[in-house]
Amino acid sequence: MSKFSVYRDVDNGCTYVSNQFIDEYLAEANAAQIKVYLYLLRMTGTATSVSDMADKFNYTEKDICRALKYWETKQLLGINYDMSGAVVGVVLYSSPSPAKYASAVPVQTFVPVSVPFSSVSTGNVTNVASRSAAAVKSEPVNEFAKPNYSADDLKSFKEQEETAQLIFIAEQYLGKTLSPADIRSLLFITDVLDFSTDLIDYLLTYCVDKDKKSFRYIEAVAVKWAEQGVTTPEEAKAVSGRFDKSVYTVMRALGKSDNSPTDKEAEYVKRWTNEFGFSTDIILEACNRSVMLTDKNRFAYTDSILKNWKQSGVVSTRDIKSVDSKYQPQKKVANTSFHQFDMKHNYNFDEMEKALLGQQ
């Protein structure tokens, strides 16, 4: 890949990191994005390339390009291209302001990431910069957009050495033969999102554990992780480990498998398992009863059932049967008392009617 030059809109003869960058941008950026930006600061006025940076930090070229695009969306840098679409320059801004391209870009053709090359012609740099700034505002970049892969793309993907292993892993987890649409999703996850085999393995495990086996769902999770800068299974565990498996088990039991757990719902499950000390089978029994009795507020209803069982000393499903058996005689007594009351009062309604008519 060709070399490109790095420029600053203000050259004060030293390399520095602004307080604004530390205060406003550092926390949200991932490691690759931070390394790339700091390296560009250091390389101001010196030639470098995407491949050089990839080699230096042991990243893929796709990682470097993704980091460059990230900082462009933050308006901390701009990217210059030649007629072939190769990167020939990077402009670092002292503050987020695309308008500064006019005085800083040393080439006559500027093509921002969000605008196709064919839609921009060679001409006055100031006019191109103003048009491109408007395009960035109206058409934000979606760096994780899924391409329309052709049959040839799928064929080429299948012929790669690691693809057979990925397909085998996916089919084992999902318990089915992958369709062409499934393989397109797998290609997207490896090609655009740049997931490693280990990360895809964890992704599949994570989704299957939630009983979500459609590639539409798997792909959505993968995009979310990519947006969060996840590149390893450890990072994926950190962002997805907010709720443990028991929460999703309860969500399914209560008919809420299509929803993400809220903090309140997770607190319910935490109380049932930790405070009440109930096993999964007891909790699921309460869930099943709630589903049969109500369509609304199922978590609250389940909580009331489990709270009653806790007060009754339930520690196993056998104890639940004991509580049920104690409840049934109480109902019978209530019903018997009613019938006894009814039997003791054999009213003669004919006589009562005559008496009432006589009073009129």
Short description:
The chain has 360 residues and is mainly α. The protein is built from 18 helices and four strands. The longest helix is centred in the C-terminal third of the chain and has 28 residues, at 317-344.
Give your account of this protein's structure.
With 360 residues, the chain is mainly alpha-helical. It folds into 4 domains: 4-138, Arc Repressor Mutant, subunit A (Orthogonal Bundle), CATH 1.10.10; 151-241, DnaD domain-like (Arc Repressor Mutant, subunit A), CATH 1.10.10; 246-315; 319-358. The protein contains 18 helices and 4 strands. It has helices spanning 19-24, 31-42, 50-57, 61-73, 101-104, 125-138, 151-158, 163-174, 180-191, 197-209, 215-227, 233-240, 245-253, 263-275, 280-293, 298-311, 317-344, 349-358; strands spanning 4-8, 47-48, 77-81, 87-92. It has a 4-stranded mixed β-sheet. β3 and β4 (87-92) form a beta hairpin. The longest helix is centred in the C-terminal third of the chain and has 28 residues, at 317-344. The radius of gyration is 33 Å and the shape is elongated.
